[in-house]
Specification:
Elements: E1 2-8, H1 14-23, E2 34-40, H2 41-44, H3 51-61, E3 64-67, H4 71-84, E4 87-91, H5 100-119, E5 126-129, E6 135-137
Parallel strand pairs: 1-2, 1-3, 3-4, 4-5
Antiparallel strand pairs: 5-6
Helix pairs in contact: 1-5, 3-4
């Protein structure tokens, strides 16, 4: 069985990662192919950690990074994450305008699709999730 860690980055509230970790039960049905956990970068690294350092750490630990990065920052960071071999789930831009409860509701509603799509990613690959939970390979 494989253990996958989803690391929410600093574009998402730390409390959202905590809520998702506790809201989403692990699959009980056999065969369980993927067990996963959810964390936040600030639970793993100090908030002052430079971007290049947390990207290296995410690659080293083979985390799947979940982010809601603005398009302007995304191009630069996406290239660095791809080069480092980090798998990434980019949430739709409109996700950041939601308050934490609707964010959690949206994520819970499409989490199975996020897991299914992101588990198949190779190192350095990414997907974008639309607001209605449809994954698109980048």
């Amino acid at each position: 069985m494989t253990q996958v860690i989803y690391a929410f980055d600093t574009t998402l509230p730390q409390k959202l990662a905590f809520c998702m970790r506790n809201l989403l039960p692990q699959p009980d049905a056999e065969p369980v192919v993927v067990q996963h956990d959810i964390t936040h970068l600030w639970d793993e690294l100090p908030p002052s950690t430079p971007t290049d350092k947390w990207i290296r750490e995410a690659a080293k630990k083979d985390w799947i990074v979940v982010t809601c990065m603005a398009a302007s920052a995304r191009k630069r960071v996406q290239a660095a994450m791809a080069e480092a071999g980090v798998r990434v789930v980019y949430l739709a831009a409109g996700f950041s305008s939601l308050t934490p409860f609707p964010q959690a509701a949206k994520l819970c509603g499409c989490w199975d699709r996020i897991v299914a799509a992101s588990y198949r990613l190779k190192r350095g690959e990414a997907i974008a999730m639309s607001m209605n939970g449809v994954p698109e390979r980048l």
